[in-house]
Amino acid sequence: MKPFSDIQCITSILNGNKQLYSVLVNRYKDLVYTAVVRLVKNNEVAEEVAQDTFIKAYNALNKFKGDAKFSTWLYRIAYNSSLDYLKKKKLNIEPISKLNEMDVVSSLDVLNEIEKVERNTIIKRCIEQLNGDDSFLLTLYYYEELSIVELANVLDLTLSNTKQKLFRARKKLAVLLKENLEKEWIEVYERN
Amino acid sequence: MKETKNKLDTILGKAMQDLPLEKSPASFTQHVLGQITNPEAVVVKEIEPLISKRTWSIIGLVFLGAFIVSFQIGTDVEIAYLDVFAKIPNGIGSIDLSVPPIFTYSFAFLSIGTLFQLTILKRFYSKIGY
Hints:
The structure holds 2 protein chains of 2 kinds. By secondary structure, chain A is mainly alpha-helical. Chain A has 9 helices and no strands. In chain A, helix 6 packs across helix 9 (about 160-190). The relative contact order of chain A is 0.12. A two-stranded antiparallel ribbon of chain B has the order 1-2.
């Protein structure tokens, strides 16, 4: 049986089939949770914010026009809910280190030579070190493969600002990966 | 230059996508649906403090009063009412054990304090509906 599309689910939910909302929740819960946890950097808070996102989305479902994808609309709610939480805290924006792209690319080639588990640990560490906002953006960009237009819609930014933000976030991640990989190689070298 | 950028993007994309998504808690969907289908079931109880600001002010004033009084009348105070406690038998004859009067006083005050707290707690919990 072909699974329900998002729009089919929404139509059915709006016609009273509340239980069908579980299909949408199950479809997007892990990605919403991952994006939120990377933004707020706390599992308990992320659980609360992610659940709140789905409840807010349900309550506003009749306002969903369908001109954008349901997921984009949902990520926007998740982003705003996370920001509401972060407003209470001071956002820590770190300066971007100078980066030579050629240099970084050659350093990151090393990633392919590291075992998957180890590689994932390093990447996870780098993502945790990233600013929450950048981490959220990169998660949606790489996992959901959202376009710049969709990202701009989620973040409520102009296209050029979104491009710039994405460029900076990638830069930061690349620098962090480079630094962490160098550390890792030094440790391996010292062990041997 | 553009080629380098694309390569960087590919490496980062692959690195990120290789990392599995965080798993949301097992009861996630159930909790969301619970809130949607039966919002009344989630009753938000507004908890008020056990000791109100007014009571804290009274306690503070009593302490301040006691402090001032003790400075004004000094320490040579006859606390004859404590004799009541001193009259309580404090020895256990069969095993030849006796406790000092200060222990009896402390125990008596602790009991009074506990009774007082129990009354307050009982009132508090019945007020918030437990």
